[in-house]
Amino acid sequence: MKKVMSAPGFAALEILAKGRESAEALHSMLHQQQLPEVSTMPHELWALVEQILHCCDRALAALSGGTGGGACKKRNPEHGSPVDLPCTTRSKRLRVRGGERGIQVQKKWTMEDGFAWRKYGQKNIHGSKQPRLYFHCSYKDDSGCMGRRQVQQSEADSSVYVITYFGEHTCGQNSSRWSSCDDDGLVVNRETPDLCNSPEDEELQEGTVNVAAELLEQSTPVLELMSMSSPWLEHLGRCQEWEVGYSKSLFNIDEFIDIDSLLQ
DNA sequence: GCAATTTGACCAAT
DNA sequence: ATTGGTCAAATTGC
């Protein structure tokens, strides 16, 4: 069954993106050492921001679920194998074109996002100088996690990696596998153009009765991530003696903290 | 020896 | 026919 991103799901994505922008803003402030408090607890603050950034990335990836499996196609045997190859993986020949939705993130200097990925393909894309790299979750075989991502360097700025997430992370990777990147400069989160404009919009309208159930199902991993990140976010919110210039970020973080109520 | 990556082939969608 | 997503054998690295 194909999952449909509910309207509250879109709202959650927007807030996640906004929260991540705020975290990124704080990240920049810390990087520029504009905060007087930095001198007193730099490591703690840096850890907070890093956690926010990683949590947002993971939440966005988790919420981007769009595939629900599909017909498993057989590969034409060319090395003497029998025709009736066993068909065990649901993800074979899944296509993004024509409907599968993803969350697109742009990151500067690094394509690291805290998840463990294994590269399974690379293609030169027509009209693009940069090849597109294909990754699936490292735990795909172990736990059947269907998380995938595509990474392509920006045409305009080769230091920018455009990462598009597909599928749903169900492997429950723990934070010990999160990598810490010194220069983890995410530029902007945005939904892919077809995210809000898919042929499934009608399905969305008809399915209002199931919205709550769908959202709950889709957002379970997000709730876990939020429960993990909330203490750090709340800690940030308490540091409101920071200068006025940071009030907007704090406001957005407050809203971000409240995502629990939106998802529940 | 094992795991990860590379890369050409396969095949579905357009 | 073309394009792009995935597979899987070959290669590479530890």
TrEMBL record:
Protein location: Nucleus
Keywords: DNA-binding, Nucleus, Transcription, Transcription regulation
Residue ranges of domain WRKY in the record: 106-169
GO cellular component: nucleus
SUPFAM superfamilies: WRKY DNA-binding domain
PANTHER family: WRKY TRANSCRIPTION FACTOR 21-RELATED (PTHR31282)
The name this protein goes by in its record: WRKY domain-containing protein
Organism the protein comes from: Urochloa decumbens
